[in-house]
Amino acid sequence: MKSYKFIFILIICLIICACASTQNKKTAEKENPAQDEFDKAVISLNYNLFDEAIRYLNNAITLDVSNPQYYYTLGLAYFQKKDYPQAEQAFKQCLTLQPDHVLALNSLGVVYQEGHLFDKAEEQYKKAYSIDGNFDSACNLSRLYLEQEKLEPALDYIRAALQKNNTSSEAFNIQGVIYNKMGRFPEAIQSLLQALRIDPQFMVAGINLGVAYINNKEFSKARELFEKMLPYVQDQTLIDRINEYLALIKDRQL
């Protein structure tokens, strides 16, 4: 499950909004060339022009080597290119300048998790969580433990995340997957239903809900859900998975 990558998209959007606000401020001070390069990098990221963004960020760093945000954003650009070694180095440099940079800690953890370096990922997420108990690190720890089939700590951390933000469809989806793996199917169903109440278009949560119905032997509900979803799914992998589950339901009802 790679849904943790959505965090990067949200972070980039926040950076873009912050830069737009900065650009609108007119001051009498002399322009900051490094900031100008950074602003151009963020605009490039907004259009998925990762090589251009990296070039502008390197220009900004040449002009100002002491700004942790430049290295952090450089790490995001490299991550989007799937250049994980370069992303790792950029996030590490950010943390050298600002050890309590929570977003960089979480992002470095994601890089390690992508490389299946689970111990290193756990270390970074826990550092981030120890700073302010933030939602992202709690979700990341839950995903990490879920990937390793460590279900009890995965459940503990996703509950902690939901205490921080109970409007996250992604967090309810993760909780539903954990309950499903634990064999706690009614609780899985309720959590996944809540994910879909928050985001009715969340197809992955819908598929997970159908699986929970199957596991709970509510085959007619699963079939109805999958048949309702199928015309709206565009991803071929998800379409194939839904058809497999529909075939499974048909076999079990014979």
What does this structure look like?
- With 254 residues, the protein is mostly helical.
- It has a domain of 87 residues: Serine Threonine Protein Phosphatase 5, Tetratricopeptide repeat (Alpha Horseshoe).
- It has 14 helices and no strands.
- Helix 13 packs antiparallel against helix 14.
- About 8% of the residues have low confidence.
pLDDT averaged over residues:
90
Highest CATH level, the class of one domain:
Mainly Alpha
Q: Under the CATH scheme, which architecture of one domain would be assigned?
A: Alpha Horseshoe
Q: CATH superfamily of one domain, please?
A: Tetratricopeptide repeat domain
Distance between the termini: 32 Å
Reported for the largest beta sheet, the result is: none
Q: Estimate the helix proportion, in percent.
A: over 70%
Strand content: under 5%
Which segments are poorly predicted (pLDDT under 50) over 5 or more consecutive residues?
4-10, 16-29
- Briefly note the structural class of the backbone: mainly alpha
Supply Rg: 21 Å
CATH fold category name of one domain? Serine Threonine Protein Phosphatase 5, Tetratricopeptide repeat
Helix count, DSSP H or I runs of 4 or more residues:
14
Shape: elongated
| Strand runs, count | 0
* SSE order: HHHHHHHHHHHHHH
Note the main attributes of this structure.
78% helix, single chain, elongated, Serine Threonine Protein Phosphatase 5, Tetratricopeptide repeat, mainly alpha, 254 residues, 14 helices
